[in-house]
Amino acid sequence: MFNPINALGYTAWILKEVVSGSIDVITHIFKPGTYGHPMIVELPLRCVTDVEITLMASSITITPGTLVVAVGAGDDHRPPTLFVHSLFSDSEDEALEGLRDMESRLLKVTRGRAPGQIREGRKSGDVR
C-alpha cells in the first residue's frame, strides 16, 4: 500500500543522497590519488513489481557514484537482480549495505512497511 508520508520522507532522503554523493564526487576529483574503488556488485532484490524495480534502478542511477548497468529478470527460483557500478565503496559489503538500505526505504513507501517489519497485532516470531 502506497504511503504518501513515507514518499515525502523518501524524496527528502534521496535528495540528501544526491547532494552528498555530488560532494563525494567533487571531493574525490580534486584529491590526488584517492579517486575511488570502482566495482560492480550484484544486488538480488526484494522488489518484485515492475514499478518497485524501476523506482529502485532510478534511485540508484540518480545518486552520483552509482549506476545500474544491467537488470537480471527473476523467475520462480531467484529474485530479480540489479548489477550496480559503485565508484566509492571500500568493499562489496559496504556497497550492498547502502543499496539494501535504499531498497528498504523504497519498499516502505510502496508497501507501507519495509520487508521484515512486524505488523501490529502479530506475534514477534511471525514476520512477513
From TrEMBL:
InterPro entries assigned: Cation_antiport_E (IPR002758)
Subcellular location: Cell membrane
Keyword terms: Cell membrane, Membrane, Transmembrane, Transmembrane helix
Keyword Cell membrane on entry: yes
Superkingdom of source: Bacteria
Pfam family, one: MNHE
Membrane topology: Multi-pass membrane protein
Family of the protein in this entry: Belongs to the CPA3 antiporters (TC 2.A.63) subunit E family.
Record-given protein name: Na+/H+ antiporter subunit E
Organism: Brevibacterium otitidis
